[in-house]
Amino acid sequence: MTAAGRPQNHGLSIGAVLAQLRGDFPDVTISKIRFLEAEGLVTPGRTPSGYRQFAAADVERLRFVLAAQRDHYLPLKVIKEQLDAVDSGAEPTAALPRPPRRLVPIDAPAENVGLPVADDFAVGKELRLTQEELLEQAGIDAAALAELQQYGLVRSGPAGFFDPDAVLVARTVKAMTEFGIEPRHLRAFRAAADREVGLLEQIVTPVYRHRDPEAKSRADEVVREVAALSVTLHTLLVKAGIRGVTGC
């Protein structure tokens, strides 16, 4: 046990939490879970290497938050107030079921909350989606997909199949269109991502060329670590820019 009371190296990864929640909340994504973490609604622990570890109590809090949003249309601020009240021993509003208490202390470094870690970039079992499956899961039509492909935001493989990340990209772009942002406005995101991938290739290609049997594993680890750092840097730069726009 750690000093905080959480067993070391025991807990659920963010992917495992997503799998548990998807049955009741089909639209939930890893990005959504990260966002709720960033907003302080759930605070998973971290391993010494920075990997997220969600306890059962964390999963129940996520269920409460998602249900309160879906069934009661409550803003996150109100939901957080409910959770904070119960954590402090107060009684919740009668209109809502009693939210779960935080059973584990906050032990995640504040500077890491909501930001990706290397395991988020680990390659899992390869899944291939047809265009019809992509359209159904993303909630878009063929015309919208064609536009995403036109601007390079979604790409199919050589055989015409899509990977699961294409679904998340399509959903994210769809959500952004509600704010008047169209796919054509997002070409800069695609270009920036391609430049970051190109930089990663320059770093790891020499390692992949080594004859050492462990070279590929080391290169894969470097890719995951640098990818996580690059996304973290991008996130922090955008946050800093937003503060400059809003004057906060």
UniProtKB/TrEMBL annotation:
Residue ranges of every copy of the HTH merR-type domain listed in the record: 27-85
Presence of keyword Aminoacyl-tRNA synthetase: no
Entry keyword annotation includes DNA-binding: yes
Pfam families recorded: MerR_1
UniProt cross-references to SUPFAM superfamilies, sorted A to Z: Putative DNA-binding domain (SSF46955)
Gene3D superfamilies: 1.10.1660.10
Recorded GO MF terms: DNA binding; DNA-binding transcription factor activity
InterPro entries cross-referenced by the UniProt entry: DNA-bd_dom_put_sf, MerR-type_HTH_dom, MerR_fam
Keywords per UniProt: DNA-binding
Sequence intervals crossing the membrane: none
This protein's name: MerR family regulatory protein
Taxonomic source organism: Amycolatopsis pretoriensis
